[in-house]
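Q: I have two molecules that I believe assemble together. Could you output structure tokens for the complex as a whole instead of separate predictions?
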Amino acid sequence: MKQVVVHPERCVGCMQCMLACATAHSRSLTLLAAVQETPQPKPRIHVGAGRFNEGFPNRCRHCDPAPCQTACLAGAIYRRDSVDTVMINPDRCINCASCAMACPYGVIRFHEDPLGPSGHAIAVKCDNCSARVAKGQTPACVEICKAGALTYEEMDAAMRRKTRDVSRSMSTDADQPTIPAGVALLKSIKQSELQLSGS
Amino acid sequence: MKHVIIGNGIAGVCAAEAIRLLDVKADITLIGDETFPPYSRPMISHVLDGSQPHGKLPIRSEHFYDDQKITPLLGRRAGGIDVANRQVLLADDTRIDFDRLLIAAGADPRPLRAEGLYLKNIFYMRTQDHAKQQVAALDGARRAVVLGGGLVGFKAAYGLLKRGLAVTMLITSGYPLSMQVDETAGRMILDELVRHGLTVEVGVSVCAFEGNGSVQAAVTDAGTRLTCDMVIIGKGVLPACRFIPGAQIEVDLGVVVDEHLQTRAPGIYAAGDVAEMVDIARGCPWVNALWPEAACQGRVAGMNMAGRPVAYPGSLSRNIMRVFDLDVLTVGNANPNKDSGCRVLKAGGAAQQYYRRLVLKDDVLVGAVMINRIEQGGVLRSLIENRIPIRLPPERLMTPGFNFGQLLI
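A: Yes, here they are, computed for all two components at once.
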């Protein structure tokens, strides 16, 4: 089964995935209309700043077994085996934030959601774009990512490709680096800026 | 293999599920005091505050026992364990054979010693039945007294305030939630409740209740008389281990277990509110009577009972609550002893409506308190639970932009 694979070393921090994610989880499904919706749709992928201000796309890992599922007081979090996805039932969620305390990655947010019950906040997190995938589309964050930081592939294939990339970059006649030159440059600029500023 | 589980709380239920997952043929008997389908105990406070209906409490189907092929013995309490003959004794002298036994008997509310406890509308807060009775008593109630400033007392007070009652909370320690948070956080929570109409009396306890059939007043040891038409007692819980033979199974405050959740008696395990094991943050034996903890322990105990050895690293206290506009998260040891050699870092405070407190032992995080913006609390909990040395300046963990990416090299 294909899944979203994150390559943080490639992320340039453009946050396009956040916009695409919020749009994909809006009622209108278009960016222009989504920004005018109430409640406003919010992203379920979160690009944070890493230690050198580099981008870090953080999304649900759909753990198995999922700590959030075990900790859910209301029995609202469940695993949909057919798509290997941890889901939150918005109608059962009681917004107790027990899952926030359980999630080791900090990817769950609490707010009113266009796809949830109106008038009150619930726990919201990545659902692997199951609605899009059911229609044969790829997850929105992957589709929009220009830097190759988010890919949609079989995990085995991704692992093999990564191993191959690393071994190729280690060999003496390496013809291409693992990270595109532009991304590597941007990262080193950010890193040196931070070092120069002394923080 | 005959598995017997004492207790149908979340630890017992998760253990039964784990056994069934690993062994389809296992014979599982579950002895439960409560006859209601498996439900979410922490949610009873949401039923009291009116945000959730009583009908939403069950978290397993009503056919749970049939689906999992479990023989339920509900409405019965275990009265003893015959370790030598490997039998559980019920109160009516029935004996049930076992090969593997799980003690997941949970905990009972710490009883209050006071006169007039027989009066109507004086409640403990532990079971769905208590919540049902409390909600029924709300009709026409105007003034309530809550005893205890711990988690239960707090949630009871919050629920009653939300229902529009005038609530007086009596606490014996200097500030509420003194077991969970430090004084700064405790005061912020208290101020929030007081702002919403709570009256708090510190350093007093109740010695008697007065009334004519139903409670009408609580009399304190200071001699004051508080009129009320409802009382909720939240003085914490005690592990239900009176029926356990201490000669064969070591009982301290709770039933002492090893890293496989096995008691001193081979083949007999304990999990949940009744079990005592090492506390990861404190480094000493502790009873952490918490629901998510019980769920994990139940599952691990079940796996061990079914023959798959799984170690449990120890328990960890953790709590999260939403009190009006405050979100409060606490993990591990927030109040270390002065001589423990721990370093405490703080940021924010009441004025900012944002507070952070980190407790570090050397370079390992052992405790954290967060007020508001609690989304990254799970990352801190994971750092504490896995005892991961912190390599970035710990102050960074308290900044609003902290995220998982900063822990990577």
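A: One point stands out. Chain A has eight helices and eight strands.
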